[in-house]
Design goal:
Chains A, B: Homodimer. 2 copies of one chain form a homodimer. Chain A has 195 residues and is an alpha/beta fold. The first copy, chain A, is built from 5 helices and 11 strands. An 8-stranded mixed β-sheet of chain A has the order 6-7-5-4-8-9-10-11, sandwiched between helices. In chain A, strand 1 and strand 2 form a beta hairpin. The first copy, chain A, is globular.
């Protein structure tokens, strides 16, 4: 998606360790019009899939997820991050390891909000090692929900997350796919503008 | 706002200790069309105010805030909750006590995203004791930003938050104002449907 690639080129900041900072428009300050455009694109890509629910994880997945839900006319559920893995009644939980923060979190969804009648579109802002999305897939499995696919704003294609998802037989659509960083430059998969 | 009051009557669950659970449509599962309607209302109420930025706090403030930002054509900034109050360079921070969870959090906003040229509309899902909004007001003060006002989805008018905000001379607009609970019934300020 050219709009998103252009915005990453313009406002993204590449830090040491292949970290891309996009807090200018995606995960601290948010550009609502851009989120709406992402929602339009996810909605277009998955329009044949009879999606019943959007699933994401707090906090930065919420903005693109809510726009997708608005445009697909379905509810959005966000998994909550919990410190402990204490089992609570009435929750589907999954463990998610954060490579960035080097901590393991438990994410949880109330069993009321996901069930076997659901066909879920998972939406998130970032895909790197795929831990968050894998946790969301685990939660869908616990709920016996179908998964229509995964929609990601920014994928770091050189990390293992994309393969992890495809290995599970799940459709993945990422709107900007980063192949590599070079200094402060971002190269995208299949882009001709890798100057 | 009748639409929101009706939804609270229909799907809200009153728990012990005057806790209203609205995780069916606001803070776990989210109804995007309702969030859009809240955004329309905040946008209408503050349309004369030359708002430059929406400020909220993760996570459940993000959905109504992003719709308000979309409709007012301004960026949204969400304050991040941090465990420690360790001073980090480049952040405006405020302490926020959560009565529900009985913990003190620090909320933080990158100094890049708020400054003296801003006229801020603070948006949040809930107003009870006013700790989160007070923290956001403190952050605006640190940034020397103007505050156009505060927009709240659900206000518990019998708790102290609303007064705390008005005592600071800040305009407050709450779309559903709860005067009391009676068993599982919710009474609203000024509503004629308190049956």
């Amino acid at each position: 998606m050219k709009l998103l690639e252009d915005r990453i080129r313009e406002d993204g900041v590449v830090l040491a360790g292949d970290v891309l900072k996009v807090n200018q428009f995606l995960n601290h300050q948010i550009d609502p019009a851009l989120m709406y455009a992402l929602g339009q694109e996810f909605s277009r890509l998955y329009k044949e899939e009879k999606v019943t629910k959007i699933l994401t994880v707090e906090s930065s997945g919420i903005a693109p997820a809510i726009m997708t839900g608005l445009l697909m006319h379905v509810p959005v559920v966000f998994a909550k991050k919990q410190k402990s893995s204490t089992l609570n009644g009435g929750l589907y939980t999954a463990k998610v390891y954060s490579y960035t923060k080097q901590v393991e979190n438990t994410i949880a969804v109330d069993t009321k909000f996901l069930n076997a009648a659901d066909n879920v579109l998972i939406v998130d802002d970032f895909l790197a090692n795929g831990q968050a999305v894998t946790g969301l897939l685990d939660i869908c499995k616990l709920a016996h929900a179908q998964v229509a696919g995964v929609g990601i704003a920014i994928e770091k294609s050189f990390q293992k997350g994309a393969d992890l998802i495809r290995d599970r037989g799940v459709r993945l659509e990422s709107l900007a796919r980063i192949s590599s960083f070079e200094g402060n430059k971002v190269h995208f998969v299949g882009s001709t503008e890798n100057d």
